[in-house]
Amino acid sequence: MKGRIKFAAIASLVLGLFATSMAARAEHVQAETPWFSGVPLQSLVKGPAGSTINSTQLVWGTSLSVNALSAASAGTLTVRLTDIEWPHALSSLSLLVTDLNGLWEKIDGSTGPDGLIFNLSDPANLFVAVFAQSDSWHMPGLYNLQANFSPVPLPAAAWLLLSGLGGLAVFRRKQSDR
């Protein structure tokens, strides 16, 4: 009977230490390697790809959020990341914008009022990842991510070109009538 109690106590102690060790190791991996821990970004994406993102997230401890963005044509991509500092400022805030073929931009901290501006010359599928960490599990933080894609207004440029060519044709015809 005493042997069984002793065995159960030792087994529970070993299992408790093992669980604590695994939790500490997972926390260390998240804190030290937020952008790559062997998991593809595609598998971490939440929701379908769109041309805009407007997301506000409350962070308890650590958080990795990955959003997909679709740019159907050439245009301008604007990305803003803001630490709202409610109820406390985040201890760590990082942003990564990539197309998975290369690192486009990685910054630590908020992007400022103008944000980051990317000029895209071709259609692209992009990923916007945010890693945030609060001071502790008991003191949360809040951030806002905004990303907007604006395509180049080609139809307006085409109408402007056609009207200019038409004006030149009229001007030339008047010149030849003289």
Task: Write up this protein.
There is one protein chain. The chain has three helices and eight strands; from the N terminus they run ααββββββββα. The chain is 33% helix and 37% strand. With 178 residues, it is of the alpha+beta class. The strands form two sheets. The chain has a four-stranded antiparallel beta sheet, with no helix packed on it. It has a four-stranded antiparallel beta sheet with strand order 2-7-4-5. The longest helix has 31 residues. A hairpin with a 4-residue loop joins strand 4 and strand 5.
Short description:
With 178 residues, the chain is α+β, with helices and mostly antiparallel strands.
What share of the residues does DSSP label as strand, in percent?
Answer: 35-45%
| Class by SSE composition | alpha+beta
- Rounded to the nearest angstrom, the radius of gyration is 27 Å
Average pLDDT for all residues: 79
Q: Poorly predicted ranges (pLDDT <50, ≥5 residues)?
A: 21-36
Largest sheet: 4 strands, antiparallel
Q: Which strand order do you get reading across the main beta sheet?
A: 1-8-3-6
Summarize the amount of helix as a percent range.
Answer: 25-40%
Straight-line N-to-C gap: 121 Å
